[in-house]
From TrEMBL:
The lineage of its organism: Bacteria, Pseudomonadati, Pseudomonadota, Alphaproteobacteria, Hyphomicrobiales. It catalyses: 7,8-dihydroneopterin = 6-hydroxymethyl-7,8-dihydropterin + glycolaldehyde. This is 7,8-dihydroneopterin aldolase. PANTHER family: DIHYDRONEOPTERIN ALDOLASE 1-RELATED (PTHR42844). One of its GO terms (biological process) is folic acid biosynthetic process. Catalyzes the conversion of 7,8-dihydroneopterin to 6-hydroxymethyl-7,8-dihydropterin.
Length: 122
């Protein structure tokens, strides 16, 4: 069984979306991450070297979301997952949720979201 490091609703202002207005105006997105890894040694030794930095993981996700433009939040989620798995050797799996509360949908709703889970291959 794997343990989890959770990052809830990291707010970013970005310009993702299909519509030209989304690129011009931008909007708020929320990123939530669930990192799966073995934290037993980190907890036993009280040593960050046996874990991973949630600040570094949040920073990676924030940087990707704010420095690049994606037409689909699915592509944003995939990029965060792939780059996090490359950057953090202890990471076994990562769930990425992208909430888009201001989605341009002509209906009354709180927002839309995409959630993916990716695991380390090999």
């Amino acid at each position: 069984m794997l343990d989890r490091i959770l990052i809830h609703r990291l707010a970013v202002f970005a310009r993702h979306g299909l519509l030209p207005e989304e690129e011009v105006l931008g909007q708020r997105f929320y990123l939530s991450l669930e990192a799966r890894l073995d934290l037993r040694e980190a907890g036993t030794r009280d040593d960050i070297a046996a874990s991973m930095s949630y600040a570094d993981l949040a920073g990676l996700a924030h940087r990707i979301a704010t420095e690049r433009r994606f037409r689909l939040i699915e592509a944003l989620a995939e990029t965060i997952a792939a780059e996090a798995l490359d950057a953090f050797p202890a990471l076994v799996a990562l769930t990425v949720r992208i909430d888009k509360p201001g989605a341009p949908v002509p209906l009354v709703l709180d927002g839309v979201a995409v959630e993916i889970t990716r695991t380390r291959r090999g």
